[in-house]
Design brief:
About 75% of the residues lie in helices and about 0% in strands. By secondary structure, it is mainly α. It has a single domain, classed as Alpha Horseshoe (Serine Threonine Protein Phosphatase 5, Tetratricopeptide repeat). The radius of gyration is 15 Å and the shape is elongated.
Length: about 140
């Protein structure tokens, strides 16, 4: 196995503080828990906050991050696809969607998201991910 298959790392989504005090508190604590690799505990905080504010992008991003950490790739993909549909310029969600698809060995589907995130962000890690998946797609076509 390669490193990316066994040790999934993804930078945290950008900090976005919702206006309501309860979701804001859930956001801050869940972000800290996810940074400490505690997705179960973070999800326990996020779900009630999302019940109050189901369209909150910051909370939904954290939920997707928790799903990725837990390797619940189908759930992560669903949440991330919704985030990208709502805001196509969300670089973090687009890159994370590409990574979720990559982790499911759906390289051809992942590649457009990873390439676009790389172009939008200029981040060398995003560019490396796009190049890695492009090589996998090319190899599968041989």
């Amino acid at each position: 196995m390669t490193r990316h298959e066994t040790d999934f790392e993804l930078a945290a989504p950008p900090v976005v503080f919702p206006g309501d005090a309860a979701p804001e508190s859930a956001y801050r604590v869940a972000h800290d828990l996810l940074a400490r690799r505690a997705p179960v505990e973070a999800l326990a905080l996020l779900e009630p906050a999302l019940a109050e504010d189901p369209r909150n992008t910051g909370l939904r991003s954290l939920r997707a991050w928790a799903f990725l950490i837990r390797a619940q790739l189908g759930r992560a993909e669903e949440e991330l696809a919704s985030l990208v549909a709502d805001n196509p310029s969300d670089v973090w969600a687009r890159h994370a969607l590409g990574r979720a698809l990559e982790r499911q060995s759906r390289h051809a589907e992942a590649l457009p998201h990873l390439r676009l995130a790389a172009v939008m962000s200029g981040d060398p890690e995003h560019s490396a991910a796009a190049a890695r998946v492009a090589a996998q797609v090319a190899e599968s076509q041989l």
